[in-house]
Structures are given as C-alpha cells and as structure tokens.
Amino acid sequence: MRGTTRSTSSDERPGLDRSPRADRRPAQDRDRYRPTDLQLDVEVVPTEARHGPGSFDVIHLANGYPLDAGRRRLHARRIEEQLERFPEGQFVAVLRTHDAGTHEDGTEIVVGTATTMRTKRPPDAPPLGWTAVIGDYGLPNHDPEGDWLYGVEIAVHPDYQRRGIATALYRARLALVPELGLKGWYAGGMLMGYHRYADVLTPRAYAERVIASELVDPTVSMQLHRGLQARGIIEDYYPEPKAGNCAVLLVWQPPVAAPAKGIAQAGSGARLRRATATPGRAQPAPVAAATGAGRQSAKPVTRPGDAGN
Q1: From CA 306, how far away is CA 309, in angstroms rounded?
Q2: Domain span holding position 77
Q3: Kindly report the CA angle at 31 between 25 and 37, in degrees rounded to 5?
Q4: Which runs of E-coded beta strand occur in 23-103?
Q5: Which domain CATH number covers 57?
Q6: 184-203: pLDDT as tens digits
Q7: Which pTM was predicted?
C-alpha cells in the first residue's frame, strides 16, 4: 500500500488503474501494442530480467507517465533486485503474437505486470507508507520469513485492460498464499474515481460510499467484486490527486472450502494459459475478467464498520 508522502522517481510509483489518457507514445510504439489484426495469445509467466523494460513501459503507460530511457534502465535494475530477493512473487503477462492467417510465431510483448513481497506486518498493524514497507522498488524490505503477502504493484497495458489479464495476475499472486503457507494477502486500492466527487465529498466519505456499494469506483469496486475484503480506509496513502491520496485497505485470506469469488472463477475474455511450471512458483490457470490495481499501507485507518457517512 501507500501512505505517507514520498519523493521517488516515477519508476517506483505504483501501477494504478486510471481512466484513459492521451496516448503519448511514438507511432511505432502504438503500432507495436495495438491489438487489432492480432490473434491474442496471453500467458502469465514468472518474471525474468529480460522483462524489465517491458514492465516499465506497462506501468508508465497504464498511469499516463512519460516513457524515459534512463528510468527504464533503473527499473530494469530494480527488477533484477526483486528476482534476487523473491523470484516466486513476480509475474508478467506476455502477449505472443502470430499471424492469424499463417499462425507463425511473432514477438513477445509484456502487457501486464505484478509485484509482491513477504512481510511480517499483518494488515491490522499500524499502517506505514508504501516506501516504508517495501524500502524501494527493489524490495530490500522483503522478509523471507514473513507470513503475509504484500501487493506492491500491478498494472495492465491500457490497450489490453478488461481482457482477463489483471484477474490472471491476481490469481497467480494469491495462489502463492496457500502454496507458501501464508496467512493471506493485502494491498491498498487507490480510489481513482474520487476526483469526480471531489467538490461534494471528502476522500473518506467517498471511500465509505464505495465500500457500501452506494458509489462505483473504477478500481476499488472492481477489486471488491473479485472477492477482496475492505478492512479500512487509508488516508494520505499515496500522493495521487485523482484519488484524494486515499486508498481502501484490501485483504484476502484463503477460503476454507470455496475459491475466492471472481478471482478463482473462469470467464470470457482473452485466452490465458498456464505457464510452464517452475520449482517454487505458483502457476495461474486460465481465467478472465476485468483489470485491477493493488498496493500497500499508509497512515490513518478507519475500519469500514466504524466510519460514518
């Protein structure tokens, strides 16, 4: 999650789902990612160092940040650090293109990315700022003995949102919880629709109404529909004006008998295949649904049951 104000280069900012923005990419980059005339073949696989530049592009395009070669190189180094510390917790969704007529193999393009780490801090502990929790995007604060999984980052390329990619990424991360014997997963969902109500509601009031299903937020409502539970409202979570710097504390714990709603169910959308098994990793099964975002801790927390409208 995020919380306190932090100064950081944009390569360390969260991959938040946002409303569509003007496409700032060069024409050749737009053509590279454009899904038309391609037969979609998307697969969630363990992140490798070679995926670093593509992961950077996805995060920045999903958030409307400009692409920068220097920051792309720094991001690639951070990915290498993540893989040294916790390779099991890193995933990318790759699009393998081929000609629809000849079925010849084409290029591999990163269209989604998800980052996690382990922590001993439970979701009901006094929340910390995002940087205080993770250290930096290389995850120096990852605790190999931690019994909670922390959602550091998730982003889907804007051209491929609502095709089941984010749900597959979520499913891959949540599969680590029972596999590693953890207590659960938690993150902060940024309230990216708050700006539409900023003139009439405080961020907290908006969050309360989203949790109560009285208002629909493009990020948090979708996450709640996936079976994640709202456990608190986090103010000053991350400096994002569109969200009023506010997030909802989202928690998932393994069900006793039934799979998590939405996340563990298959549906229509882009075809996603199980990645080749890698020792020590959870591998996602095919699934489809809308995109989402996740992140971690912050400052004042109000439990949903205690908040007034």
Answers
A1: 10
A2: 10-303
A3: 150
A4: 42-46, 90-98
A5: 3.40.630.30
A6: 999 988 898 999 999 999 99
A7: 0.71
